[in-house]
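Summary of Year 1 activities. Much of the first year was spent building the evaluation harness for sequence design. The harness presents a backbone, in tokenized form, and records the residue chosen at every position. We chose the following record to illustrate the format because it has been used consistently in internal testing since the harness was completed.
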């Protein structure tokens, strides 16, 4: 494939792959600070409009090592909103609760009016055991708790984080519909739901967005979930668009993980899978060098090029990484380049599942039929 040479800020042309050097970093830094105006997109067909890229807030408080200093995270959130990234994503399970409390502080002083706020319910941590719940009493209590912690009277987008396979989706949706009617939530979302559950839910009340893992190396949703969303006019929110950081820095990421980081337990980061997966990163990195962008920007640009109904929500805890992620919006990919990128992480090239076996119960196979439901 022919790549047109273009002169980069450093004066070299992009057909000369740089060594991993200060020169490459200088090019990356030059791109990272380039002002990019963040477009707005319609998410779903009910009227929600969000920034074309969102900000995943989980890693600020939970799961990816120890919580980060609160003042720094508030500063980062304010920086994002000022830059035009106004779609903020959290959940009551992040912490639990501490991420919503953090966002509540960041939203004070007139910031709330500038953002589209998304949170989630459905994973309960009680008495040290994790449980997935979608029963109406729990849905309502979870929503009230989130509103209080966030310090708001309404959430823009409220997702069921994981699907409760004991409760028909129609029952859960019935309660969410009431919360919409009461003005406590504006729009309803589902996360990690099967195509049939999405259809059944949407029949009760329109679903605005489905959140799912979608990146160069996580593409299983393309088979039937994404086509179902498009058929029904549902927006797609892509979490972990950078492969939980692996598509940003490769095996260096794994070396830097702390004991509290749950990525340490993920199959793709285990020694037996790492060498094979490192090759994916190396190929992405080489193509990024040719294009004069960073591997993160290239991987994110691939998600952006999936369509204007897709909003990736990369998470970060550093302003410079945030700036770099926004820079992905100006990276253009031809259809040939898209295919080349996809070939690097084709089926069979990626070693390891998305989640450890213990979390396989998180996958929604199907919720029981409505006729089986007996309310407590």
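For this record, the design step produced the sequence shown next.
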């Amino acid at each position: 494939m022919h790549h047109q040479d273009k002169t980069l800020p450093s004066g070299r042309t992009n057909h000369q792959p740089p060594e991993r050097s200060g020169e490459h970093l200088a090019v990356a830094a030059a791109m990272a600070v380039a002002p990019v105006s963040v477009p707005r997109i319609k998410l779903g067909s009910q009227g929600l409009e969000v920034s074309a890229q969102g900000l995943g807030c989980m890693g600020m408080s939970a799961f990816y090592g120890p919580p980060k200093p609160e003042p720094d995270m508030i500063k980062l959130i304010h920086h994002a909103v000022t830059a035009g990234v106004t779609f903020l994503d959290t959940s009551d399970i992040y912490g639990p609760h501490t991420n919503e409390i953090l966002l509540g502080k960041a939203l004070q002083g007139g910031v709330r009016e500038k953002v589209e706020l998304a949170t989630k319910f459905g994973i309960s941590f009680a008495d040290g055991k994790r449980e997935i719940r979608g029963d109406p009493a729990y849905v309502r209590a979870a929503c009230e708790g989130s509103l209080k912690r966030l310090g708001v009277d309404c959430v823009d987008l409220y997702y069921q984080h994981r699907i409760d396979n004991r409760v028909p989706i129609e029952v859960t949706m019935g309660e969410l519909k009431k919360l919409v009617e009461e003005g406590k939530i504006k729009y309803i979302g589902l996360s990690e739901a099967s195509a049939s559950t999405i259809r059944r839910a949407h029949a009760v009340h329109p679903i605005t967005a489905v959140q799912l893992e979608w990146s160069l190396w996580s593409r299983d949703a393309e088979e039937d979930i994404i086509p179902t969303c498009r058929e029904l006019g549902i927006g797609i929110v892509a979490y972990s668009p950078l492969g939980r950081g692996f598509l940003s820095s490769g095996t260096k990421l794994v070396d830097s993980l702390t004991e509290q980081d749950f990525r340490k337990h993920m199959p793709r980061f285990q020694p037996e899978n790492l060498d094979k997966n490192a090759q994916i990163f190396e190929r992405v990195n080489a193509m990024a060098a040719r294009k004069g962008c960073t591997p993160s920007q290239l991987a994110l640009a691939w998600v952006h090029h999936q369509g204007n109904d897709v909003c990736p929500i990369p998470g970060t805890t550093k302003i410079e990484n945030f700036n770099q992620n926004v820079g992905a919006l100006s990276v253009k990919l031809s259809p040939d380049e898209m295919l080349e990128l996809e070939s690097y992480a084709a089926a069979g090239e990626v070693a390891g599942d998305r989640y450890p076996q213990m979390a396989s119960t998180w996958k929604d196979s199907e919720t029981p039929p409505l006729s089986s439901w007996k309310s407590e």
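The chain has one domain: 22-364. Quantitative recovery figures across the full test set are reported in Table 2.
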